[in-house]
Amino acid sequence: xxxxxxxxLLVAGAAxxxxxRIPSAEARRRSRRSRLYDVVVVGAGLSGLIAARAVRRAGxxxxxxxxxxxxxxxxxxxxIGRGKVAELGGEWAGPGQDRVLGLARELGVKTFxxxxxxDNVYYRDGQRxxxxxxxxxxxxxxxxxxxxxxxxxNNMAQEVPAAxxxxxxxxxxxxxxxxxxxxxxxxxxxESRDLAALAIRGVYGEEATQVSLLDLLSAITGVGxxxxxxxxxxxxxxxxxxxxxLSKKLAARLGRIVRTGTPVLAIEHGRDGVTLHSAxxxxxxxxxxxxxxxxxxxxxxxxxxxxxxxxxxxxxQPMGSVLKVNAIYDRPFWRDQGLSGSAIxxxxxxxxxxxxxxxxxxP
Amino acid sequence: xxxxxxxxLLVAGAAxxxxxRIPSAEARRRSRRSRLYDVVVVGAGLSGLIAARAVRRAGxxxxxxxxxxxxxxxxxxxxIGRGKVAELGGEWAGPGQDRVLGLARELGVKTFxxxxxxDNVYYRDGQRxxxxxxxxxxxxxxxxxxxxxxxxxNNMAQEVPAAxxxxxxxxxxxxxxxxxxxxxxxxxxxESRDLAALAIRGVYGEEATQVSLLDLLSAITGVGxxxxxxxxxxxxxxxxxxxxxLSKKLAARLGRIVRTGTPVLAIEHGRDGVTLHSAxxxxxxxxxxxxxxxxxxxxxxxxxxxxxxxxxxxxxQPMGSVLKVNAIYDRPFWRDQGLSGSAIxxxxxxxxxxxxxxxxxxP
Lengths: 363, 363
Known about the structure:
- The structure is a homodimer.
- Chain A is of the alpha/beta class.
- Chain A is built from 13 helices and 15 strands.
- In chain A, helix 2 runs parallel beside helix 10 (244-254).
- The longest helix of chain A is centred in the middle third of the chain and has 18 residues, at 140-157.
């Protein structure tokens, strides 16, 4: 099995970050005479900023409201000096992710390959083994089961359209079971089960007990049909200086229309358009685009309420929960020992480790 | 299988009902000099009102804040005149539910038996059959499978403590599968599967695809260990004048400490206690008790944020979704035809029907 990596830092409690301040009657009065935008975009992560750019390119007026005091959403880079960063949030791209790679080219953000030279470490039951390539030195039984599972995932995914997974002939059967249940039913060796759980954790930042099998299959289709891509090459490209630059550069081009520190707490919508209330004032638009994670959207008060089915959907899209820790060394000493820095462990709190060095290998 | 009935109207989008108004800086300033309660209870449904009563009985000061302009939460009765009501929300009690029955006695709310005389109707594939007793005239195969499933549910439930289901030896196995998946794996006849889905819908107001098997088993333990109780006798007692009276009478005794129309939108908590912000003002307390449904609690802004694990839990407790319709006739004409008024259908939008007449059978 290829190295399993953490793809995204899904921040628990993002909704809470919206803060506790809310619009006064005065703010509402002011909004009545405020400007009417064609579109207000909520959220200044990549989705929101790209949406705002598209609206402006179409010749329409647009405003972006961001709850946090920064742009970038789930891309969050921590500066370690000299233009280098430790990525605290999402960090990888991969072959076929043409839009984000095209955006990087357009914005002048260079990419570099994820470090993958040297042996990997596999740690299980107190035993440390090294291995090269993508297959950890698990027991032969576990390896056979894991390979069979990947084949079966890929086979099932063939009938699942990435954009409309619910139209797959077996969609109902696959959506009533968690990935964990499928693994429990189909893998019988404990080591292979542990490796499967680890892979899901790496891909989703979430337990296999919480993910529907259909969702996993549509994710496989989404990366081209091979589970190995999901846990492997989809994590093979990094951004020099960190991925948050994409958002920062987009926001810089958009200029004053991006307002940070402006949590949208309530939205009124009707025939006359949309009024979005933040703590200190309100904004009017013909239309609004909401890009926050689902639980954060669910925490916005809508008047009138959202359609019940959509509200129910929002209640069923929780965030995952993962801790990502960056340890910074003067130099990547493991490389001298012929190690890649990648390690997977089926025990202990630290289960997935990788070399997250800047392009030149030095902080 | 006993008649399956709707136990509770789970209102989709309850969170949205909190409204869009929020505390101004002025309100916050006022709160600094406001009274410090020992406890503020959020929510004036049965739980909140009982909690407030307990606090007051303990000699502590208490305030109840309710978002809606009424008390009663998911008990909602619609007056049809002459002291009679059509219950729009939860309506039943059953043997063993000693606390709510004791409360009714204490408050002078009489109970009466759910009407169950006469034949029931079973509708499937365009065929209407009548039957007496609890077992619908399904095919022999379906009946055998359903009976076997109920036995198996009850057997599994024996090892599940109602209050701590996660300590059951097989808790992990049962929590990674939905009830729908268990049914798909263990029932092979379509009619028995349909009846199982119907039963879950009746008990939960939610699809079997959304409920973990472990949750169902703990619910079975909660009613004494028999699935039949869950779908049968737990729905055998009604309240004369409607169950909302319990909340109304409790609130009347509590008096001015119950404030309706006061949605709590934000809560600050720390060593100095708790500050709860509503639209127009803020309230301070040493401690707070939150009784709203989980998604509504999740829509409150907490400062500091809730612990991530609890926030994650709130994100994983969605409401169910069911429509309940009361049709009012001058008299229960079906009784003259020897029918109970109960009908179950495995097709069509109306799947569960029952005689919801007032005690004397007349509106």
